[in-house]
Amino acid sequence: MMKGGWFKVYAIGYLVFLYAPIIILPMFAFNDATVIAFPLTGFSTRWFSAMMEQPTLSLAVKNSLFIAVTSAVLATTLGVFAARASTRYRFPMKAGLMGLIMLPLVLPEIIVAVSLLVVLLGLGVSLSLWTVILGHVLICTPFTIAILSSAFQSLDQSLEEAAYDLGESAASTFRLIILPLVMPGIISSLLISFTISLDEFIIAFFLAGTEPTLPVFIFSQFRFPAAVPVIMALGTVLVCLSIVLLTIAEYFRRRGIAKSGGKDTGGFL
Amino acid sequence: MNANSRWAKLRQTEAANGLMMISPTALYAILMLAAPLGTILLYSFLTDGYLEIVRDFTFANYIEAWTNELYRSVMIRSLGVSMVVTLVTVVLAFPIAYFVSFHVEPSKKSLWLFLITIPFWTSYLIRVFLWKVILGYNGVINSGLLGLGFIEEPLTFILYNVNSVVITLAHAYAPFAILPIFVALEKIDRSLLEAGQDLGESKFMTFLRVTLPLAMPGVIASVLIVFIPTIGDYVTPQLVGGPEGRMVANLIQLQYLKLDNYPLGSAIAVSAMGIVTLVSLIFIGLNRRYLKGPK
Q1: How far is CA A183 from the centre of its chain?
Q2: How far apart, in whole angstroms, are the C-alpha atoms of residue A254 and residue B109?
Q3: Residues B64 and B146: beta-carbon distance below 8 Å
Q4: Chain A residue closest to B137 (CA)?
């Protein structure tokens, strides 16, 4: 038997387990039956055309895109500050502050959602798309820091010192030297935050008020069995979209590491 | 020395630069995370009046959360489910991390990790719903087993109970468990393993005495990264759990959005977080003892 043979069999079995739902999804999206069950009855694209005619859906998509783009930009901006600070400087309370910033990575989202809800309602802030953005920035920032830290870490500090020696200021060094080198990391982090925000349900469920977002809309449709095939079609579109976004993000993440001369340790986390 | 130049000097120190650089992100986390968490802690000691929160300090919410049979059983179930999910996820994930780290060519490692993480980023709600389709009465497993003639009638113990919650959560958190273990395994100096075998240990003993202890930090990280969020998962118990699969997040949502009892909801949330922290600390402590080895 070849080296690691049994491991490989296990690994492939594991991938099948991981991908099972994603493989089944398009089967029902293109299935010509109202009931989500086997056996499949025939090929049809009618659920995709029905999806186009959903009025709430287009509003939900618009809201979710607005939230995801804004959250991605804000979270990546905050991520750049934190990743730069943690990779470049030593300062007091560093572990505590970084711990707090990275906390949403493990904190259940429902805790983030209810605690923000209580504070916002207490302050008299009415719920809107912006309150969802507040929460999404919080949960996206740790992921952006994870990606950006590896970009900043592989940065050669002598490049920066050379720029100072040649008379550049701190700001222009950042703009001319550091930013271009970490740009792939920034793009990767924007795409990942966008994907997380677009997919996030709990925080939007608690903080969106009456505005629908895409996951909130999907969740509400699960209650109506007749609406589920359309959701399968929508899900197929979303899965394809996120695979494309993630592939682009992975491409930029790797290019970023190669560009600044680092070694790829793999993965987003 | 005047104040101006002192300020200029301070600005040049590394600590000040670092603090300035991190301040936007840190302020955001303090305002949007630390302060709100403090607020629910405070709320959990207040009294719920009709339509408003009465500012009377009380332990009544905690007494209710810990003695009411309904709340207590949901809490115990959540704890049990997340422990089982963590065990299953980490045990299943370890061989994958080991395989990718030790048996996959270096050039293909990134591709494997990418393949493993993709499902994690794609529509969580729809993935959970699809487990309902897989496990359901007319689902993939039942129609498959019926078609093959293994069973006479559809299995019903796999949907709308704790089992389905465990399967779905184990699936959802799988990539989260693999990555930290993989990172720890990658850091192991391969020559240590050769040394172990040169000194006459079998492959299996080398694994037990060298690889496993060195991989432990990664295992700990994945245990925590799976255990802590799963206890607060809302979607999975809601969609596939049925009435007997409800977990603490469903209870919190009920208190906040349906019953409008913020103090009790906060007390339940704080209790759940307290239990999770305690269990995590005990786990980390036990692990320290394991790494110290037998006397």
Answers
A1: 18
A2: 12
A3: no
A4: A37
pTM of the model: 0.85
Q: What is the DSSP letter of B196?
A: H
CA distance A88 to B256: 42
Consecutive H or E run containing A36: none
Determine whether A231 is exposed, middle or buried from the number of CB atoms within 10 Å of its CB (0-12, 13-18, 19+): buried
The Cα-based distances of B276 to A202, B223, B237, B265 in angstroms read 20, 12, 18, 17
**A187-221 pLDDT, tens per residue?**
889 988 998 999 899 999 999 888 899 999 999 98
Q: How far is CA A152 from CA A82, A87, B10, B69, in A?
A: 11, 7, 25, 52
- CB-side neighbour CA atoms (13 Å) of B111: 5
For residue A37, which residues of chain B lie inside 8 Å, CB to CB? Answer: 133, 136, 138-139, 143
**Any bridge partners for residue B47, and if so which?**
B54
Rounded to a whole number of angstroms, the distance from the CA of A160 to the nearest CA of chain B is 15
| Residue B17 in contact with partner chain A when CB distance is under 8 A | yes
Q: Are the CB atoms for B269 and B64 separated by under 8 Å?
A: no
Beta carbons of B249 and A269 less than 8 Å apart:
no
Angstrom distance (rounded) from CA B184 to CA A196: 26
Instruction: Using alpha carbons, list the distances in angstroms from residue B293 to B89, B283, B288, B290.
Output: 25, 16, 9, 5
* ipTM of this complex: 0.83
